[in-house]
Amino acid sequence: MDTAAETHRAIDAVWRIESPRLIAGLAKMVRDVGIAEELAQDALVAALERWPQSGVPEKPGAWLMATAKNRAIDRLRRKKMADAKLAEVGRDLEAEQDTIPDCDAALDDDIGDELHGPNYTPCHPVLSREAQVALTLRLIGGLTTEEIARAFLVPEATVAQRIVRAKRVLSEARVPFEVPRGDDRAERLSSVLAVLYLVFNEGYTATKGDDWMRPQISEEALRLGRILAGLAPEEPEVHGLVALMEIQASRFAARTGPSGEPILLLDQNRARWDKLLIRRGLAALNRADELGGSGPYVLQAAIAACHARARTADETDWPRIVTLYGFLAALTPSPVIELNRAVAVSMASGPAAGLALVDELLAEPSLKSYHLLPSVRGDLLKKLGRLDEARVEFERAASLTENARERDLLLARAEAARS
Fold this sequence. Notes:
The protein is mainly α. It has 20 helices and two strands.
């Protein structure tokens, strides 16, 4: 057995688990997320150098934090910082040096607010949504810049620039690396959840590229959502989002065919749905309900649960789904939600009823370039026997999507609709 290789694998695993709270703790000390990340990386390099000879310590998180603190003290001394604030930080670090052994248990057993901070800070409203996503995946997810770029099909330099700029903005705005309080906390939590779900959806149905799905991205969002649920156990919307992601993730194996072609929900082999993820999702939804949850993620999870509980597509409780979409539309009005409600209505009351609702959305400016509008309309027209109109809609939808797999599917549907 290659002991060095085993140790390096162990270091990779430790780093993935420990790096978010390590960076969080350091950022609270040095007041700069960029410097905190550099110190954390220095500690990782030290681990790579020493652990293959000495072995992985019993409490690796504490070892990394102690090493990073030492590097921080050395850095402050070496640069002889004159700034009063940084000098004060240096004194704080010196004082904390004596308590490093006492913090071992906290580092390894009680993450407390240290992971709350990084979950909130990368999603601060001073940052653009693109920057929030990149920084969340970099600092909290532990993904490399290359991995993020590959996931979202953008140049690595673009992602690197977003991350550097985001760190600078946070530093210049003096954003505290801590949990927000009161009304600000609720607003920021909403932003965190939105970023996680955006990341999940990008993996669930990729907006562009040659693959319809990139499950590893969704899995990363789900992992972070589970962590957040553990840190915010009394927040129903957190459990709602986790439930939604668990249930949707359960379908991954059934969503594509042998050649990677998309398989739509009603055509999927439900025997291939992951029963464990479904059980986890339903348990999370039950927890959200126990907490009195009725927010948008809880409602979307309840809709997903209707599909998960149906053994076959024909057993789906479409009237309940219509009702839930009604609640969701009242809570967070959106043309996309109305489009989804129209689909549910078509399944509960027939394609003509659904088409009437879809046609009301044709003049909606925000849906002008949304490929699912003509896609849904084409499907309803086909069910009504209006094949020429359906073909035109499928072709229009194909022209609007940037995903190659989805485009092929829509063109195939257009061809099938030829009279």
